[in-house]
Every structure is written in C-alpha cells, then in structure tokens.
Amino acid sequence: MYSEQDLVQACIRQERLAQRQLYSQYASKLFATAMRYMKNKADAEDVLQDSFIKIYQKLTAFRFDCPLEAWLRKIVVNTALKALQNQPNWMQHTDSQMVSDEIEQEEFTLSGFQFEQLMEIVQSLPDGCRTIFNLYAIEGYQHNEIAAMLGVSEGTSKSQYSRARTLLQAKLKNREVLHSPTRNES
Length: 186
Fold this sequence. Notes:
single chain; disordered C terminus; Arc Repressor Mutant, subunit A; Rna Polymerase Sigma Factor, Chain: A
C-alpha cells in the first residue's frame, strides 16, 4: 500500500501496481461524480475511462496543493462537461426560458429518500439543468465561474439552476405524495 505521494510518484513512473491501486482506490467515488453529470451508466463509464487516461497522463502536473481526490474529481467533472458539450443541443438556453427566481420556500425532507432515488431524480433533469445544478450545488462553483466554463451567460447559469431546483422540488414532492402512506380521514 502506497502513501498518497508515493502512489502518485509510482503512477508517474508507470508502475502498473500503483496505477491499479489508484484506480481501485478512487474509481467508485469518481464514477459517482460522473453519474451525476451523465444520463446513463454507459456514458458515465466512458467519462470515467477517459478521465483515468487523462489522470495518468497529467499526474506530473499534480502539485499536492490540494487533496488528490479533489484534483481527480475536477478532471472527471471537466471530462464530463466536455462530453456533454460534444452532444448536439445539450443545453437549450435562451432568454425565453428564464424561470422565475421565486422558488417555493417549502421545506422538503430528504430522509425518506435513498441515495439511488435522489440520483435518479437528478439524472432525470434536462442536461443543462443537471450540469449547472451539479456545478453550483454540489461542486461549489459560482455562476460567473460556471458561465465561463460552459461558455454561457451568467444569467443562463442562474436560470438553469433555478429551473433545476424547481423541477427537483416538483419531482421530490411528487415522489413524496406517491410514496406516503394513505391517510384515513374520519
């Protein structure tokens, strides 16, 4: 078992055992990241494979100024974004699609949902909404950063995020209603 720094150095030297350990140690977490961006498992697997090729090629650029996992995740996110941007009409964004910034402030409890159910709901979002939701809500990017990354306006980023939240709330509420026990009214 290698330390993080030894693992990176061994991978740079193209030691197969170290490369296998890096993959084994991080593949499932990075696959989960890819699944948040891609519509299906096959596309997420492609992103993961392309990401590991880039990881092994770019490990010499890793400077240990952040956790290795964060650096790896950034490569997966960027690879997923590139894959999405190569799809025709991946983000439908026009000013006419602006969504009201007034989002229902009702609290939703997520305790009744399992991780797989939440992932399914997020994956059901349109590509643009799902991508911006992930970048903003999960990865922590600001709208101006997202706009620069995706080549869209900051307003488009905000409206797609707003639309994603609205759609997620509706889907969560719908599932809550569908899965709640029937109440007997007296």
